[in-house]
Write a structure and sequence with these properties.
The complex is a heterotrimer. Chain A is mostly helical. Chain A has one domain: MetI-like (MetI-like fold), CATH 1.10.3720.10. Chain A has helices at 15-54, 67-70, 86-117, 120-133, 138-152, 160-185, 188-196, 201-228, 233-238, 257-267, 283-313. Chain B is mainly alpha-helical. Chain B is flat and about 65 Å long. By secondary structure, chain C is of the alpha/beta class. Chain C has a 10-stranded mixed β-sheet with strand order 5-4-1-2-10-9-3-8-7-6, sandwiched between helices. In chain C, helix 5 packs across helix 7 (152-165) and helix 7 (152-165) packs parallel to helix 8. The two termini of chain C are 36 Å apart. The relative contact order of chain C is 0.19.
Chain lengths: 319, 330, 259
C-alpha cells in the first residue's frame, strides 16, 4: 500500500491506479491467450480427427493406408470405408493453376502500370478500385463467374474454368497490391542507372525493375494462391459437386478440396442397416476431417514456400 | 581488340525505341483498365441475371421459386429484409466480440511483449487468417458447438431476461443444438481477429515515441500511458481496421452456413435456432437446387450483398487512408 | 571519341518553376570540367540536362540548346534514349544492378538493350572496361560474383566501368565520391586523370579541393535565395577561379564565407 513520494501531475501512485494497471495488463495478456486457444484447439482437432480416415482400411480395420489419397468417390456410397480425394486434389490443382495463369499477368501488368507508367485520374481510379476489389465477398465472385458464363455460354454452365474465373476475381487484387509494393521497393537509383546507359523505359522495367523485385513478387503470388486455394463458396456455385475424375477445365464439373469437405459434411452419418456389409457410420465425418487436414497442410506448405522464396531469393543489396 | 558496339554507331535519331515504349505502356495501362472493366462487369452481369427476379411481381415470382410465397418468405424484398437483418446481427455480434480482443492482442504485441518476440507473435495470430473458412465451419459445427451448449444453457438460465439471450418462447429453453446466431458470431469473430489485429498492431507501433515518453515522464503507469498516448493516436486506424473486419464478416459464407440452422425472422433471440440466416449462407444453401427463376432471385440477393460490402469497404478504406502511413498492413 | 559540349542560353524548368536560368558555357573535349557551388544551386540539375536525364521526372523541360560537336541534342528528331548512349553518367551513390554479377554489370549497357554479343566480345569488353576503371586486378578472379559484393569504392569503379563500356563521347559524374571514404576518393580522382585521355569529363562536386585537384576548368553556380533559379556565376581555368576569381560571390564561396 506504499504511495509514491514523488509528486506528479497525475497525483500519487495510489493502489487504485496500480490495481487498474495490473487489471489491464492481465486483460491484455488474456486477450492474446484467448486468441491462441482456438488456434491450438482447432489445429489439434484437425490433426487428431484427420488421421482417422488414414487409419481405416477398406476392410474396416485399423490399419494405416493412403487409400484416401489415391481414390476418388466414384462408386462409393453409404457407409463404405472407402473413397478419397484424388479427384478433388486434381481439381483443386487444375483450377488454382488456371486462376493463377489468368491472375498473374493481369495483376503484375497492372502493378507495373501503377508504379511505372500511371498518372493522374486513371492511376488513382485503378488503385482505389483494386482496394475495393479486395473486399468482394467470395460468394459474389462465384455468382459473377456464373453470371458471366450464363450470358456468354448458357445458363447452368459449371466447369473448372468458371471456378478459375471466380478465383481470379479474388486473386487479382492481392497480386496487384503485393506486386505494387515490391516494385516500389526497387530503389530509383537502379532505374536511373539503366536510363543513363541509354536503356529505354520498357526494357528497364522488364530487365531491371521486375527481376530485382522478382523474389518479392513470387512470394506475393504464392500467398495469393494460399488464400484462394481454401475458398469454398465460389466453387460451390461455379463448379459444383462431382464424384469422379475430370481433368478438363473447359468442360464438365470438377471436385475441389474445400467443396469436398462441405459435401461430405452435408451427407451426415451413414445409415448402417445391412450387417453383412462393412459399414462405418462416421465415415463421412472421417473423410471431411481428413480432407481438412490435407487442405491445411497444403496451405501451410504454400506459406512456408513463400517465406523460403523471400529469404533465399531476394537479391543481395548492400554488403 | 574489341568489336563491341561503340556509341558512335548508334545514331542520335533512332526513333523506334520510343514506339516500343509506348506499346508497353499502353499494354500495362490496358491491364489496369481490365480491372476497372471487371468491377463494372461484376456489377452489370449480376444486374442482368437478377433483372428477371427484380422485375417480376411478387406473385409471379412466388409461383416459380420454391422458397418464396410461403410463410415468412412471401416476397423477394421481405426475404432480403430478413437476411439483411440476420447478416447485420451476426456480423455486429462478431465485431463486438472480436474488437476488444483484437485491440488487446495488438497492444500486447506492440507494448507488452518483449521486442524480440513481436514478429513471431504477430505471425502466430496471422496463422488464424490462413485457416480456410470451411475448416472453421467444420470445427465449429462438430467440435465447438457441443462445448458451447452448456454455456448457452447457463446464459439462458441466468440472463434469459435480456432480449438477446431469451430462450425460445415455444419451448422455454435455449436451442438444444447450439446451431444459433451466437455460435456463428463466435466463429466469425475468431476469423476476423487477425485482420483487425494486424492493422491495429501497425498503428500502435507508430505512436510517436515523444507522446509515450511524455506520459511516462509524468509518472503514468503503463496502462495510463496507453490510454493517454497510444489509443487516441490509434483511434482512426482501429476504426478503419474494425470496418475492414466488418466487411469480411458480412461476406463470410461457409462458416455461417455450416453452423447456423437457418430461419427468416426479425427476432433478437440469438440463442434460438431456426431464427436467423445471412445473405451469403442463404445463397449457398439454395443455389445448388435452384431453378432459373430461383437463380435469378439469388443473384439479386448477391447484388444486394455486393453493394453493402462495397459501401462498408469504401468507407473503411477512406478512414484507414486518413492515416496515410499505412502500407501493406493487410 | 571525346566530343565538345556547347550550351547556349539554357533554362531548366520543372513545370512552371524555373530551376536554372540562362546558362551558356563550353566544355572542351578531352578535358575535365568541374561544377561547384552551394547545395541546391542547380549544378546537378544542370548536369542532368546534358544527357537529358532530367526528363525522367515528369514535367521537366528546357529552353535553349545543348550542342554536342555542333548537333543540338534537344532537336525534335533526337531520341533522348539515344543521347544517353553517347553521354554516360555516374551517380552519387554506387548503383550496380543487384541481380547481376560483376561481369554482367559491365556489359549491362549492351545486354539490357537486347543487342547480341558473342561470348569473346563480351569478355573483351569486360576486361577492357574494368582495366579502364582500374578495377580489373581486384576483381578478375571473381567476375561472376554479385556486383553488390564489392566495397563502396569498388562498386563506384564498377559503375564507371559500366559507363565507359559502351564507349560514350562524354562522361558526366554527379558527386561520384561523396559516398566514399578518402582512399577510394583518391583512387577515383586518379582514375579521372587517366580517363580524360579518351573521354570528355564533367564532374559536379561540393568538395572544392577535389575540383582544384582534378579539373582544368571550373564553373561556379549560385542561387540567389530559396525559390529563385540557380545561375552560372563564373567559369574559367581552375587555377584562375581558385586564386583570382572575377566575381565577389565566387570569392566568398571559395573562401568559405558561405555554402
Amino acid at each position: 500500500m506504499a504511495t509514491s513520494t514523488v509528486s506528479s501531475p497525475l497525483g500519487n501512485l495510489s493502489t487504485r491506479r496500480r490495481a487498474i494497471n495490473g487489471l489491464m495488463t492481465t486483460l491484455v495478456y488474456g486477450a492474446f491467450v484467448v486468441a491462441l486457444v482456438p488456434l491450438v484447439w482447432l489445429s489439434i482437432t484437425v490433426v487428431r480427427k484427420g488421421t482417422d480416415r488414414f487409419m481405416l482400411d477398406s476392410n474396416g480395420e485399423h490399419h494405416f493406408n493412403v487409400d484416401f489419397l489415391n481414390q476418388s468417390m466414384k462408386g462409393v456410397f453409404g457407409g463404405m470405408p472407402e473413397g478419397g480425394i484424388m479427384h478433388a486434389i486434381v481439381g483443386t490443382l487444375l483450377i488454382t493453376l488456371t486462376a493463377t495463369v489468368i491472375s498473374v499477368p493481369i495483376g503484375l501488368l497492372t502493378a507495373i502500370y501503377i508504379v511505372e507508367y500511371g498518372r493522374g485520374k486513371l492511376r488513382y481510379a485503378v488503385r482505389f478500385f483494386v482496394d475495393v476489389m479486395t473486399g468482394i465477398p467470395s460468394i459474389v465472385a462465384g455468382l459473377f463467374a456464373y453470371a458471366l458464363f450464363a450470358i456468354l455460354v448458357g445458363p447452368g454452365t459449371k466447369t473448372g474454368l468458371v471456378g478459375a474465373v471466380a478465383l481470379s476475381v479474388l486473386m487479382i487484387p492481392v497480386v496487384v497490391r503485393s506486386s505494387e509494393e515490391m516494385l516500389r521497393l526497387v530503389p530509383n537509383e537502379l532505374r536511373e542507372a539503366a536510363y543513363a546507359l541509354g536503356v529505354p523505359k520498357w526494357l528497364t522495367v522488364l530487365k531491371v525493375v521486375v527481376p530485382t523485385a522478382f523474389a518479392g513478387i513470387s512470394t506475393g503470388v504464392t500467398l495469393a494462391i494460399a488464400r484462394v486455394i481454401g475458398e469454398t463458396a465460389p466453387l460451390l456455385i461455379a463448379v459444383g459437386v462431382i464424384d469422379s475424375y475430370n481433368t478438363n477445365v473447359f468442360s464438365g464439373r470438377m471436385m475441389t478440396l474445400p467443396v469436398y469437405i462441405v459435401s461430405e459434411w452435408r451427407k451426415g452419418s451413414a445409415v448402417c442397416n445391412d450387417p453383412a456389409k462393412i459399414c462405418v457410420p462416421e465415415i463421412t465425418e472421417y473423410r471431411a476431417w481428413a480432407a481438412a487436414l490435407v487442405l491445411i497442410l497444403i496451405v501451410m506448405a504454400l506459406n512456408l514456400i513463400a517465406r523460403l522464396i523471400s529469404k533465399y531469393f531476394s537479391p543481395k543489396t548492400g554488403r | 581488340m574489341t568489336t563491341a558496339q561503340a556509341a558512335t554507331t548508334v545514331p542520335l535519331t533512332a526513333r523506334k525505341e520510343s514506339i516500343a515504349d509506348k506499346v508497353f505502356g499502353a499494354f500495362s495501362a490496358g491491364a489496369a483498365i481490365i480491372i476497372l472493366v471487371t468491377l463494372a462487369a461484376v456489377a452489370s452481369f449480376l444486374l442482368t441475371e437478377a433483372w428477371p427476379a427484380l422485375m417480376s411481381t411478387s406473385a409471379d415470382l412466388a409461383s416459380k421459386v420454391a422458397w418464396l410465397g410461403t410463410g415468412s418468405g412471401e416476397t423477394l424484398i421481405s426475404v432480403i429484409g430478413y437476411l439483411v437483418f440476420g447478416t447485420i446481427l451476426v456480423s455486429a455480434m462478431a465485431l463486438a466480440i472480436a474488437t476488444p480482443v483484437s485491440i488487446g492482442i495488438a497492444l500486447f504485441i506492440s507494448h507488452f511483449a518483449p521486442r524480440k518476440l513481436a514478429a513471431g507473435l504477430g505471425y502466430l495470430i496471422d496463422l488464424l487468417a490462413a485457416i480456410p473458412s470451411v475448416v472453421y465451419g467444420l470445427w465449429g459445427s462438430i467440435v465447438l458447438l457441443p462445448a458451447l451448449k452448456p454455456f448457452y444453457r447457463w446464459l439462458g438460465h441466468y440472463f434469459g431476461w435480456f432480449p438477446l439471450f431469451a430462450p425460445d418462447p415455444a419451448t422455454g429453453e435455449v436451442s438444444p443444438t447450439g446451431r444459433v446466431a451466437l455460435s456463428a458470431s463466435i466463429v466469425l469473430a475468431i476469423m476476423i481477429i487477425p485482420i483487425i489485429t494486424a492493422i491495429s498492431r501497425e498503428v500502435f507501433l507508430q505512436t510517436p515515441k515523444l507522446h509515450e515518453e511524455a506520459a511516462l515522464a509524468m509518472g503514468a503507469t503503463r496502462w495510463e500511458m496507453i490510454r493517454m498516448a497510444v489509443l487516441p493516436f490509434g483511434r482512426p486506424g482501429v476504426i478503419g481496421a474494425t470496418m475492414l473486419g466488418l466487411g469480411r464478416a458480412l461476406g463470410e459464407t461457409m462458416a455461417v452456413y455450416m453452423i447456423i440452422s437457418g430461419g427468416l425472422t426479425f427476432s433478437f433471440g440469438v440463442l434460438q435456432s431456426g431464427k436467423h440466416n445471412t445473405i451469403a449462407a442463404y445463397i449457398a444453401s439454395q443455389f445448388p437446387e435452384a431453378n432459373g427463376s430461383g437463380v435469378s432471385a439469388l443473384i439479386a440477393m448477391g447484388l444486394a450483398l455486393f453493394i453493402i460490402t462495397l459501401l462498408v469497404n469504401m468507407l473503411a478504406r477512406w478512414v484507414v487512408s486518413r492515416r496515410s502511413e499505412f502500407s501493406g498492413a493487410n | 571519341m571525346a566530343k565538345r559540349i556547347d550550351v547556349n542560353n539554357l533554362n531548366v524548368f520543372y513545370g512552371n518553376f524555373m530551376a536554372v536560368e540562362d546558362v551558356s558555357l563550353a566544355i572542351e573535349p578531352n578535358s575535365v570540367t568541374a561544377f561547384i557551388g552551394p547545395s541546391g544551386c542547380g549544378k546537378s540539375t544542370f548536369l542532368r540536362t546534358i544527357n537529358r536525364m532530367h526528363e525522367v521526372i515528369p514535367g521537366a523541360r528546357v529552353e535553349g540548346e545543348v550542342l554536342m560537336d555542333g548537333t543540338n541534342l534537344y532537336d525534335s528528331n533526337i531520341d533522348p534514349v539515344a543521347v544517353r548512349r553517347h553521354i554516360g553518367m555516374v551517380f552519387q551513390r554506387p548503383n550496380p544492378f543487384p541481380t547481376m554479377s560483376i561481369a554482367e554489370n559491365v556489359v549491362a549497357g549492351v545486354k539490357l538493350n537486347s543487342k547480341r554479343m558473342s561470348k569473346s566480345d563480351a569478355e573483351d569488353m569486360v576486361e577492357s572496361s574494368l582495366k579502364g576503371a582500374n578495377l580489373w586486378d581486384e576483381v578478375k578472379d571473381r567476375l561472376d560474383k554479385p556486383g553488390s559484393s564489392l566495397s563502396g569504392g569498388q562498386q563506384q569503379r564498377l559503375c564507371i566501368a559500366r559507363a565507359i563500356a559502351i564507349k560514350p563521347d562524354v562522361l558526366l559524374m554527379d558527386e561520384p565520391c561523396s559516398a566514399l571514404d578518402p582512399i577510394s576518393t583518391l583512387a577515383i580522382e586518379d582514375l579521372i586523370q587517366e580517363l580524360k585521355v579518351n573521354y570528355t569529363i564533367v564532374i559536379v562536386t561540393h568538395n572544392m579541393q577535389q575540383a582544384a585537384r582534378v579539373s582544368e576548368k571550373t564553373a561556379f553556380f549560385n542561387i540567389a535565395g530559396t525559390g529563385k533559379p540557380g545561375k552560372l556565376i563564373e567559369m574559367n581555368d581552375t587555377t584562375t577561379i581558385f586564386s583570382v576569381p572575377s566575381e565577389k560571390a565566387t570569392e566568398d564561396y571559395i573562401s568559405g564565407r558561405f555554402g
